[in-house]
Amino acid sequence: MSQTKLLTLNLFMRPPLVHNKNWDFKNQRLSYFISKIIKKYDIICLQETYAAYTSRQKKLLHEAANHNFLYHAISPLPKIFSTHIADCGLVILSKHKILESTFRPFNDSVYPDKLAYKGALYAKILVNSKPLHLFNVHLQSKHPTKSSKKYLMYRLTRRKQLIDLRNFVDEKIGLAEEPGFICGDLNVDGREELKPPVFKDIECLDDYEHLSKLLLRGKKVAMKDLLRWKYGFSPATFGRINEKGEALEKILTMNHEICADEALDYILLANEDRTDLKINVENTKVEPLSTEGEVFTQISDHAGVETSFYY
């Protein structure tokens, strides 16, 4: 039985005029991603790959088809006259047939995330003649602030979105004896408890605890955090540092975040105990997607998370 290889990545391909440094090398990075990276995988979940005000997403979908990604699902653009000005940048690419796809908007988000039509993207994929459920998400970000009240608001909003996601997963998978993956940039720092609290007047070290309570320990569908399952801890995917505490990515990441050492990106496995899907532990890891020979050293400011499985 052949393996199926899955990648989740915040591609950091934001709309025009939104950038960190040197316009984020968006066109160059997209070309590199298409020519050098996508062919290594069978299913890819992307975040921050926007359709609004740019043709980059269309280019990606067109070129991906040339690499045998004949199926895709994307988050929709907002309706005219809505309060949103952009889609939320979610893309699923698949070499396997997508039987069904839908988008479920979140009930709440906070500025500036609120400008995007945020939600969860779902696809039911046929892998070796068997159904696989896939959810792609990008939850509420935290933004630089000196206000503990605002910082807490970001966290509470993210938890509301986790509840929305949990309800969506329960609805789509329910009691079916079929596996699922929840992939994406959850913006829950799994390394938070290793650091001093950002504020002393609010609880700042319980985000992963709430992720576990609201999402992983579901009554209908149990889930497993694959990286924590493998390592016993959450390895960093953003603002990664080496053993000397030095930043590993400096070209795309803002200076105040280059040593953030945060675990924000996840692959969660749902319904493992009810199915015959088997994870290849060795191939489950953080993948920096380094770009040797380019002016940018990684394909994104985030590292990807990948796994492979037999099904």
- Level-2 CATH architecture: 4-Layer Sandwich
**Pattern of helices and strands:** EHEHEEEEEEEHEHEHEEE
Strand element count: 14
What structural class results from the helix and strand content?
Answer: alpha+beta
Report how far apart the termini are.
8 Å
CATH class: Alpha Beta
Q: Strand portion, in percent?
A: 25-35%
User: Main beta sheet, described?
Assistant: 6 strands, mixed
Report mean pLDDT, rounded to a whole number.
Answer: 95
CATH topology annotation? Deoxyribonuclease I, Chain A
Total discrete domains:
1
What global shape is seen? globular
- CATH homologous group name: Endonuclease/exonuclease/phosphatase
Radius of gyration: 18 Å
Q: Which strand order spans the largest sheet, edge to edge or round the barrel?
A: 3-5-2-1-14-13
Helix content: 10-25%
Uncertain residue ranges: none
Number of helices: 5
Describe the protein in words.
This protein has 311 residues and is α+β, with helices and mostly antiparallel strands. The protein has one domain (6-310): Endonuclease/exonuclease/phosphatase (Deoxyribonuclease I, Chain A), CATH 3.60.10. The chain has helices at 26-37, 56-66, 148-172, 207-216, 226-231, and strands at 4-13, 43-49, 71-74, 86-87, 91-94, 98-105, 116-117, 119-127, 130-138, 180-185, 223-225, 265-270, 278-287, 304-310. The strands form 3 sheets. Strands 3-5-2-1-14-13 form a 6-stranded mixed sheet. Strands 6-8-9-10-12-11 form a 6-stranded mixed sheet. Strands 4-7 form a two-stranded parallel ribbon. The longest helix has 25 residues, at 148-172. It starts with a strand and ends with a strand. The model has no long low-confidence stretch (mean pLDDT 95).
